[in-house]
């Protein structure tokens, strides 16, 4: 897709806030001036630095010439003295002895770096100068103390001096040649800086012209946009007045002097004033809360979002009413918008809710007292049940033991009918004890606190089967999808133990089969215990879960009729359900649901 050049930049410019655009318009010429000034400063500093380096190099050349001249004067004076023996010729030599070290120090001070090649040459020149002066000094000493044998030594010193002087002159020549090359480099650098400066200045002039043109264009564009915004603001004010006239809340607009400028019909109805009565007045005439004075008196106050508060409004007749106000910056010519809502109805409703809440608190207190009383009664009942069961079991065990003793004492003397009656008596005693134990278990369901722990249901069922010890020919199958979750292990174990135990005990055959399965639902697991026994007629599906109800006569099958009642109570107190699906001679399937997350408190059934 073809994109219009500059359109993205135009959109970006249009999205910038007015303050930022004005800042950019001002910044463009300022940046151009800053760039020009920075270029001029850099050029000036660069020229000064190059000029200083050139001056220093020229001074090095001058001083090296002075050094060479001093050494030549010393050599000339020494030769004149050697030839004439006139000490007046030693004046240049004596001057060189004083000036040469001074000139060497000046040169050392002028060189910028002690480790440079020129500094090393200067050290060599210094050594050679000292060597040359030493030779001249030795020659003069030999002349002053001359003997007939010293002539050859004097001539030798003169030749040595000439060689040393030639070497010194050559070293100083190389030294000056390097300095002159460096001087030419500095002059070239100066010319380059000057050319760059000229280019930079002309570029700055061009950029300044372009920046000024851009600033003028952007300023014109900004001025046009501000005019458009001013027109839109006038239209917005008209629209705002039209909207305020029809809203259900009271709307008041304050001008930049914090005086009422707009008073909509809802506010007029709320306070009882006509708009003309309050126009130009202060806001505090409408409210009893003095905190509003801070909003009125601070003309420069700016609001972030809106300031909400509750206060009391004052109607024209002087009656107060609860009100909720919101004060916001309108962002139109430093105006504020005040929105008022009469919350009398809300306050009344809140008072009623508070009254209901107080009543609930009172009822909760009564309920807590009732629960405490019930807990005390449950403890008393549990203690009574324990004592009663103990007192009932003792005579029952005594009767059973007595029947066994009688049967042992009269062994061989009791007729078969009496022996059968003795066995029947002990069976009734065992059933009575089982009934007592069942009643105790039934009464404890939902009243005792049971810990929650991680349970592997497959391992739990295996543990139950080990405790029940089913017949060897019995086939019991546990499906592989048994879950592992946190629940009340003791209660779930008792449910499985009672259901599996019933399926085994009431099965007509010793080679029956039981299938235990599970199906996961949204919030619970649905377990099923299926057997292939005699089955249960549909009319007894509800009856079997009632306490003390059995399907077979107790004389033919020992049963308390409590096991399934305990299962039903456990399942329902834990938030689940239990039911049976069965037909006569077609086996039975007991289903029950068990929550994935245990209830904090059992459900009363």
From TrEMBL:
Superkingdom of this protein's organism = Bacteria
Q: Where is the Histidine kinase domain?
A: 387-598
Which reaction equations make up its catalytic activity?
ATP + protein L-histidine = ADP + protein N-phospho-L-histidine
Q: Keyword set for this entry?
A: Kinase, Membrane, Phosphoprotein, Transferase, Transmembrane, Transmembrane helix, Two-component regulatory system
Q: Which CDD domains match?
A: HisKA (cd00082), HK9-like_sensor (cd19410), PAS (cd00130)
Tell me which residues make up the PAS domain: 236-290
Q: What class of enzyme is it?
A: transferase
Under Enzyme Commission nomenclature, its number is: 2.7.13.3
InterPro entries cross-referenced by the UniProt entry: BphY/WalK/GraS-like, CHASE3, HATPase_C_sf, HATPase_dom, His_kinase_dom, HisK_dim/P_dom, HisK_dim/P_sf, PAS
One of the record's GO cellular component terms: membrane
Residue intervals passing through the bilayer: 21-42, 200-219
Q: Which GO terms describe its molecular function?
A: phosphorelay response regulator activity; phosphorelay sensor kinase activity; protein kinase activator activity
Any single biological process term in GO: osmosensory signaling via phosphorelay pathway
Q: Which NCBIfam families match?
A: sensory_box
What's the protein name?
histidine kinase
């Amino acid at each position: 897709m073809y994109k219009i050049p500059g359109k993205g930049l135009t959109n970006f410019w249009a999205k910038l806030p007015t303050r930022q655009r004005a800042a950019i318009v001002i910044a463009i010429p300022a940046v151009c001036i800053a760039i020009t000034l920075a270029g001029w400063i850099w050029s000036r500093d660069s020229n000064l630095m190059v000029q200083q380096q050139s001056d220093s190099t020229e001074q090095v050349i001058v001083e090296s010439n002075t050094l060479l001249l001093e050494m030549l004067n010393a050599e000339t004076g020494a030769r004149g003295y050697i030839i004439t023996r006139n000490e007046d010729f030693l004046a240049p030599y004596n001057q060189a002895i004083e000036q040469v070290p001074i000139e060497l120090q000046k040169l050392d001070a002028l060189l910028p770096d002690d480790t440079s090649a020129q500094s090393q040459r200067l050290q060599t020149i210094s050594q050679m100068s000292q060597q040359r002066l030493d030779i001249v000094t030795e020659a003069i000493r030999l002349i002053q103390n001359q003997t007939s044998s010293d002539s050859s030594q004097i001539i030798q010193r003169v030749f040595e001096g000439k060689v040393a002087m030639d070497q010194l002159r050559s070293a100083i020549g190389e030294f000056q040649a390097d300095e002159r090359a460096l001087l030419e480099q500095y002059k070239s650098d100066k010319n380059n800086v000057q050319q760059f400066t000229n280019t930079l200045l002309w570029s700055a002039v061009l950029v300044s012209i372009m920046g000024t043109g851009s600033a003028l264009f952007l300023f014109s564009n900004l001025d046009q946009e501000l005019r458009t915004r001013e027109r839109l603001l006038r239209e917005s004010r008209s629209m705002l007045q039209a909207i305020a006239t029809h809203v259900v809340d009271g709307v008041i607009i304050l001008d930049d002097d914090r005086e009422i400028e707009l008073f909509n019909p809802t506010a007029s109805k709320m306070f009882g004033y006509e708009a003309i009565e309050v126009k130009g007045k202060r806001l505090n005439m409408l409210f009893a809360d003095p905190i509003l004075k801070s909003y009125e008196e601070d003309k420069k106050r700016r609001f972030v979002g809106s300031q909400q508060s509750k206060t009391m409004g004052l109607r024209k007749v002087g009656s107060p009413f609860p009100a909720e106000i919101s004060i916001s910056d309108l962002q139109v010519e430093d105006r504020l918008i005040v929105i008022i809502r009469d919350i009398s109805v809300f306050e009344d409703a809140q008072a009623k809710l508070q009254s209901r809440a107080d009543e609930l608190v009172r009822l909760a207190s009564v309920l807590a007292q009732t629960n405490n009383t019930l807990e005390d009664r449950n403890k008393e009942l549990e203690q009574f049940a324990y004592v009663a069961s103990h007192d009932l079991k003792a005579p029952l065990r005594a009767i059973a033991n007595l029947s066994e003793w009688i049967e042992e004492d009269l062994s061989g003397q009791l007729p078969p009918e009496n022996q059968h009656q003795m066995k029947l008596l002990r069976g009734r005693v065992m059933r009575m004890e089982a009934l007592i134990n069942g009643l105790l278990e039934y009464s404890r369901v939902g009243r005792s606190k049971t810990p929650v722990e991680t349970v592997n249901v497959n391992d739990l069922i295996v543990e139950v089967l080990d405790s029940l010890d089913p017949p060897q020919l019995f086939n019991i199958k546990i499906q592989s999808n048994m879950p592992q979750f946190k629940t009340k292990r003791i209660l779930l174990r008792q449910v499985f133990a009672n259901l599996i135990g019933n399926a085994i005990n009431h099965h007509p055959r010793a080679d029956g089969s039981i299938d235990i399965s599970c199906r996961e639902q949204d919030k619970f697991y649905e377990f099923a215990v299926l057997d292939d026994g005699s089955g249960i007629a549909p009319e007894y599906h509800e009856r079997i879960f009632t306490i003390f109800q059995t399907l077979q006569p107790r004389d033919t099958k020992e049963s308390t009729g409590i096991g399934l009642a305990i299962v039903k109570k456990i399942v329902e107190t834990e938030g689940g359900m239990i039911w049976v699906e069965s037909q006569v001679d077609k086996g039975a399937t007991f289903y029950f649901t068990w929550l994935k997350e245990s209830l904090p408190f059992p459900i009363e059934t």
